[in-house]
């Protein structure tokens, strides 16, 4: 309590330490600067767990720890790595068929959340968010991808160049089989989902018929935009990043920059990739949580529409060589149909087997939960 000799100085008589002549204002009701970040009120390191992790689709909830599941994840990663070499066939398609799509998107989104916290100067919360990523799943998937990229990509690229019709037929069958398998993952299928899938397929089919021509000297902003668009294909079924770059006219520029080790161009492109993946994975995860079946139906349509660039007889040779459709020559049609049907059957049977395994695991998990 203040004594008579220590009475508080009236607000209008206070003086600033900088000098007696400083202007004096009454700031007794001032709460300080208004924060635009709602997390500023919470100290770094004390953010609640639900804010660190956020919502996830139910398919991404259970941890993947069983040896058989990890082996399957490794094989899936390998096939995803091979798929990224083929324009018109993406790793997202493989993840969807294998039943790990929601888990993949959720973990990519969690990486984006970690980056967001780091940018907002919350290193402790960023570290906690980083630890919530399913690193065992990510590591096994990544090792599978890298293993194939360093061992199988060379021979696969050769086959794509030397046997374009046969390889296109195989991948066409794989994509159509993947679309059928993915349709079985709808929780409550209905007519609206068929309509969404058909609309997405039609839009994709038409959109892939347009190309912008080659951009000789793209500016830095367009390069960053190209990276942001192309990287979305990594988690989008049906379309590969290389083909999206072809559509935007950036493929030659990016390949030339990689060959010449142009760090400036590659850095801008990589920055666009990081920002695009962070933003897109966040939006996609949000949509999968709230409208899983509608999003899945749209992705199925995207896969079906993308077969335009896998048709075995484009006007130019090579898988994804041209969006213009051609016709079979001679006896090619019979072999192409046989290869396509074989690939379709393999994917369909593999998808059924994967679904059966997942159902058994789910039932076992439910029985264990009931016994507790």
What is the strand and helix layout of this fold?
Elements: H1 49-53, H2 67-83, H3 91-98, H4 101-119, H5 123-131, H6 135-151, H7 153-162, H8 164-183, H9 191-207, H10 220-231, H11 241-248, H12 251-260, H13 263-290, H14 292-305, H15 332-371
Q: Bin the strand percentage.
A: under 5%
Give the overall pLDDT as a whole number. Answer: 75
Shape: globular
Total of domains = 1
What's the total count of β strands? 0
SS-based class: mainly alpha
Element-level helix/strand string: HHHHHHHHHHHHHHH
Helix content: 55-70%
Distance between the termini: 60 Å
Sheet of most strands? none
> How many DSSP helices?
15
Query: Which residue ranges are poorly predicted, with pLDDT under 50 across at least 5 consecutive positions?
Result: 1-36
CA radius of gyration: 27 Å
What does this structure look like?
The protein has 15 helices and no strands. It is mainly α and 372 residues long. It has one domain. Helix 4 (101-119) packs antiparallel against helix 5 and helix 4 (101-119) packs across helix 13 (263-290). 38% of the residues are buried. Mean pLDDT is 75; it is low at 1-36.
């Amino acid at each position: 309590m203040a004594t008579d000799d220590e009475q508080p100085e009236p607000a209008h008589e206070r003086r600033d330490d900088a000098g007696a002549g400083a202007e004096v204002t009454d700031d007794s009701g001032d709460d300080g600067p208004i924060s635009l970040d709602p997390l500023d009120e919470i100290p770094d390191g004390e953010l609640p767990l639900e804010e660190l992790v956020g919502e996830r689709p139910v398919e991404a909830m259970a941890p993947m720890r069983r040896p058989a599941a990890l082996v399957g994840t490794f094989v899936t990663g390998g096939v995803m790595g091979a798929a990224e070499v083929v324009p018109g066939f993406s790793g997202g398609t493989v993840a969807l068929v294998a039943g790990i799509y929601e888990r993949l998107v959720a973990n990519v989104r969690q990486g984006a959340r970690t980056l967001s916290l780091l940018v907002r100067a919350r290193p402790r919360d960023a570290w906690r968010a980083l630890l919530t990523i399913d690193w065992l799943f990510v590591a096994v998937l990544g090792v599978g991808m890298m293993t194939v990229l360093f061992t199988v990509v060379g021979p696969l690229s050769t086959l794509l160049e030397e046997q374009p019709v046969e390889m296109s037929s195989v991948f066409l069958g794989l994509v159509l089989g993947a679309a059928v398998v993915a349709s079985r993952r709808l929780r409550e299928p209905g007519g609206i989902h068929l309509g969404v899938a058909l609309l997405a397929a039609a839009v994709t089919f038409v959109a892939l018929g347009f190309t912008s021509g080659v951009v000789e000297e793209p500016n830095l902003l367009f390069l960053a935009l190209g990276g942001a668009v192309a990287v979305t294909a990594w988690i989008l079924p049906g379309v590969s990043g290389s083909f999206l770059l072809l559509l935007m006219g950036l493929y030659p520029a990016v390949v030339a920059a990689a060959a010449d080790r142009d760090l400036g161009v590659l850095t801008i492109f990589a920055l666009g990739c990081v920002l695009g993946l962070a933003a897109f994975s966040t939006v996609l995860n949000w949509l999968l949580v709230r409208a899983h079946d509608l999003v899945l139906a749209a992705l199925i349509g995207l896969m079906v529409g993308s077969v335009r660039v896998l048709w075995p007889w484009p006007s130019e040779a090579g898988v994804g060589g041209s969006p213009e459709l051609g016709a079979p020559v001679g006896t090619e049609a019979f072999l192409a149909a046989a290869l396509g049907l074989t690939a379709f059957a393999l994917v369909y049977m593999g998808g059924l087997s994967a679904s059966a395994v997942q159902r058994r695991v789910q039932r076992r998990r439910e029985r264990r939960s009931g016994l507790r």
